[in-house]
């Protein structure tokens, strides 16, 4: 029996429930080798979410001498950088350098031990995670964390719902607000799915989607919250070169539609090709910052990636 | 190949979908016939279905209480994914609120007590949930287990609440005696209208429990409508997202704590409502009516039926409460059979008798995939 070709690494899939022990690696709706094409022309520009919109090139978010300690371990050591509106900023570094930790500080998962994160000029402070999302910072996850037993459309709707306020009473009596939010929400969610090329799979359960579609769906879900800043945590993990090229296109298109993107990525080629500026972390410290060209020739970065001794590098 | 056959069989639309495809007027008519059948059920005295050893009207009322409770618990366990082992506590709070206000320390009519009981149960849900919903999974189960026991022990030890004797002389729901409804007699082998055994519409008496069952049916219908409307909205999605991945939900803008508390409060309110119905029907409550075993049975109803699917948990509640009454003659083996049934269920239907549609959909997708692969292999 010919093995169905399977472009995605099985290990990277979210663990399905135990009942599906014999679940085939390629999910049902994905005819073999099909690569989902995005529709870059669909308008997915962020909706007005009631936060001040900064002008292109102005500072959107500042990480100001942030230190984060877990007991004796210093995960982030006086890290400072900023993100300008409308740019694609790459955050790179070897494994364990503190990239994801940095994301977690920015999205309210961790509170910095010292220093602060300023968004739109104001410190994020001790806001809840969902409040930070409402302010316009959204993220994806290194290991996919979709709502596996909800449909693709429902996943995106949860993101859109971030700015909705329908509660039990509104829903129970089907008040106009419910209908309005539901209609608007569905329209926006379908636009996003269309943009991602997933409109035909709107009613598929997230866990039945092929790996690449799951990655895209996660981005769509984050975009659904109409973020000012979109943080992508290794979106190309497990992708082959063709898929990576597509992803670069996608990230650029997202930026062109009016989003600011912060990108964590291991793949140097991808980062160099798509970002405007790059921040390099190593052992929780920022060791370099600059344009892709500057970073490429930076001896400290080369040392960090190739493991040259400190003395040789400096 | 057998797998292919299985697979193709699974892909065919099931009964549910075929019903969904019917035109609306036919669906409405079917629903009305079904509702009429439910209301007439205790009068029809259908052989084999009717319980031989206990009053069928009373059994049907008990079954409908379980259904109501299961619907409430389904919001907590099925939708929001919070394991609650002390649900009987809310049931007790509802029943005792009615008892205290109408008999022990007041003389409010039953109908006035019901909304108060719902509110008190809801408040107790919030009071229990606010500090405990920060813990997850196993811890929450243990805390709620403790809550159920604390409620029961408080009832036993508080003289103000009637102590171990409980509260008696709880007033019954107000009735209007309009007309007599005859029942059907099967003793000759053919159904004959029996004008001797009648039920008064609508008299909430002490020997004929059929009107209580009718009342419970109406309440269940209202709760079902509420359940459908709320589940099918932002609220329902937020619950599901929280159940699926709490951290991811929070980072997608869902105030998870608030929604978990909401699920807890709504579940508690429905539990309290069931308790109030129970108190109104039996006229007498004591702490023994609210044993821990009841919490387990309630949870069993939800799990057996298929948590997350409202029709499933209704079926589960019927299974858990009806069969022990129907087969009373085997009372000695009840627990044994129940245990065996649960084990078989765990092996053959781990998602419950009627799993939520999401599980079914996943299964159908698998089946389609099998077909695709088999087709490839054949080519």
Automatic annotation (TrEMBL), chain A:
Q: Where is the ABC transporter domain?
A: 61-308
Extract one GO BP annotation from the record.
L-valine import across plasma membrane
Q: Which keywords are on file for this protein?
A: ATP-binding, Nucleotide-binding, Transport
Gene Ontology terms for molecular function = ATP binding; ATP hydrolysis activity; L-isoleucine transmembrane transporter activity; L-phenylalanine transmembrane transporter activity; L-valine transmembrane transporter activity
Transmembrane segments annotated in the record for this chain: none
SMART domains on file: AAA (SM00382)
Write down the PROSITE patterns for this protein, in alphabetical order.
ABC_TRANSPORTER_2
What spans are recorded as compositionally biased (Low complexity)? 18-31
Superkingdom, taxonomy of origin: Bacteria
Region described as Disordered: 1-32
Q: Which GO terms describe its cellular component?
A: plasma membrane
Q: Which InterPro entries match?
A: AAA+_ATPase (IPR003593), ABC_AA/LPS_Transport (IPR051120), ABC_transporter-like_ATP-bd (IPR003439), BCA_ABC_TP_C (IPR032823), P-loop_NTPase (IPR027417)
Q: Output the PANTHER family linked to this UniProt entry.
A: AMINO ACID ABC TRANSPORTER ATP-BINDING PROTEIN (PTHR45772:SF7), CONSERVED COMPONENT OF ABC TRANSPORTER FOR NATURAL AMINO ACIDS-RELATED (PTHR45772)
- What is this protein's record name? Amino acid/amide ABC transporter ATP-binding protein 1 (HAAT family)
Q: Which organism is it from?
A: Humibacillus xanthopallidus
TrEMBL record, chain B:
Which InterPro entries does the record associate with it?
ABC_transp_permease (IPR001851), LivM-like (IPR043428)
Pfam families referenced in this protein's UniProt entry, alphabetically = BPD_transp_2 (PF02653)
Which GO terms of the molecular function aspect are on file? branched-chain amino acid transmembrane transporter activity
Q: Does the keyword Methyltransferase apply?
A: no
Q: What is the membrane topology here?
A: Multi-pass membrane protein
Task: Please give the chief subcellular localization of this protein.
Answer: membrane
Question: Listed GO cellular component terms?
Answer: plasma membrane
Give the location in the cell: Cell membrane
Ordered alphabetically, the record's keywords are:
Cell membrane, Membrane, Transmembrane, Transmembrane helix
Domain of life where this protein originates: Bacteria
Transmembrane regions listed in the UniProt entry: 28-50, 56-78, 85-103, 109-130, 212-230, 261-280, 292-323, 335-354
Give the protein name, as stated in the record.
Amino acid/amide ABC transporter membrane protein 2 (HAAT family)
């Amino acid at each position: 029996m010919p093995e169905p070709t399977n472009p995605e690494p099985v290990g990277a899939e979210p663990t399905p429930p135990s009942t599906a022990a014999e679940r085939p690696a390629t999910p049902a709706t994905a005819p073999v080798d099909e690569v989902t094409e995005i529709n870059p022309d669909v308008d997915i520009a962020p909706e007005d979410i009631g936060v001040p919109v900064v002008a292109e090139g102005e500072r959107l978010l500042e990480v100001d001498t942030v230190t984060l300690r877990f007991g004796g371990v210093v995960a982030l050591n006086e890290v400072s950088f900023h993100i300008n509106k409308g740019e694609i900023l790459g955050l790179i570094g070897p494994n364990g350098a503190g990239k994801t930790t940095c994301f977690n500080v920015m999205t309210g998962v961790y509170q910095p031990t010292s220093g602060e994160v300023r968004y739109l000029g104001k410190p994020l402070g001790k806001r809840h995670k969902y409040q930070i999302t409402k302010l316009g910072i959204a993220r994806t996850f290194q290991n996919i964390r979709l709502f596996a037993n909800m449909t693709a459309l429902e996943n995106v709707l949860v993101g859109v719902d971030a700015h909705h306020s329908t509660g039990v009473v509104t829903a129970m009596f089907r008040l106009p607000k419910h209908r309005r939010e539901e209609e608007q929400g569905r329209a926006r969610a379908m636009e996003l799915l269309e943009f991602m090329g997933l409109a035909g799979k709107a009613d598929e359960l997230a866990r039945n989607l092929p790996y690449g579609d799951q990655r895209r769906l996660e981005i769509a879900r984050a975009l659904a919250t109409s973020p000012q800043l979109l943080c992508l945590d290794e979106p190309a993990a497990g992708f082959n070169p063709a898929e990576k090229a597509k992803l670069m296109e996608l990230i650029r298109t997202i930026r062109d539609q009016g989003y600011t993107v912060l990108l964590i990525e291991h793949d140097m080629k991808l980062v160099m090709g798509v970002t405007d500026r790059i921040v390099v972390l190593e052992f929780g410290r920022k060791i370099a910052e600059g344009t892709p060209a500057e970073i490429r020739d930076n001896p400290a970065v080369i040392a960090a990636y190739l493991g040259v001794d400190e003395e040789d590098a400096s | 190949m057998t797998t292919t056959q299985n697979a193709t069989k699974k892909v065919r639309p099931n009964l549910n979908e075929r019903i969904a495809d019917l035109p609306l007027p036919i669906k409405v008519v079917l629903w009305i016939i079904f509702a009429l059948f439910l209301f007439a059920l205790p009068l029809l005295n259908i052989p084999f279905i009717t319980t031989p050893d206990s009053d069928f009207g009373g059994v049907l009322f008990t079954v409908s209480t379980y259904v109501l409770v299961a619907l409430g618990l389904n919001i907590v366990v099925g939708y929001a994914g919070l394991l609650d082992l002390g649900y009987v506590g809310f049931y007790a709070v509802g029943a005792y609120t009615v008892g205290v206000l109408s008999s022990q320390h007041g003389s409010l009519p039953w109908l006035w007590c019901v909304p108060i009981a719902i509110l008190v149960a809801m408040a107790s849900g919030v009071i229990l949930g606010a500090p405990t919903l920060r813990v997850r999974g196993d811890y929450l189960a243990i805390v709620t287990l403790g809550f159920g026991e604390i409620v029961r022990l408080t009832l036993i030890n508080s003289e103000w609440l009637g102590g171990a004797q409980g509260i008696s002389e709880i007033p019954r729901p107000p009735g209007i005696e309009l007309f007599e409804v005859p029942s059907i007699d099967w003793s000759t082998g053919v159904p004959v209208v029996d004008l001797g055994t009648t039920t008064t519409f609508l008299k909430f008496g002490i020997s004929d429990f059929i009107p209580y069952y009718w009342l419970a049916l109406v309440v269940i219908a209202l709760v079902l409508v509420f359940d459908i409307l709320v589940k099918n909205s932002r609220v329902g999605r937020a619950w599901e997202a929280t159940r699926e991945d709490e951290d991811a939900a929070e980072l997608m803008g869902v105030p998870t704590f608030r929604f978990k508390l909401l699920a807890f409060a709504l579940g508690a309110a429905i539990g309290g409502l069931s308790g109030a119905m129970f108190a109104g029907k039996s006229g007498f409550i004591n702490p023994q009516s609210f044993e821990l075993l009841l919490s387990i049975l309630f949870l069993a109803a939800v799990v057996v039926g298929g948590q997350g699917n409202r029709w499933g948990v209704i079926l589960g509640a019927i299974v858990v409460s009806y069969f022990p009454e129907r087969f009373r003659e085997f009372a000695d083996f009840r627990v044994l059979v129940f245990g065996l049934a649960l084990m078989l269920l765990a092996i053959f239907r781990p998602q419950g008798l009627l799993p939520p549609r999401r599980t079914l959909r996943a299964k159908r997708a698998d089946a389609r995939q099998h077909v695709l692969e088999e087709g490839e292999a054949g080519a």
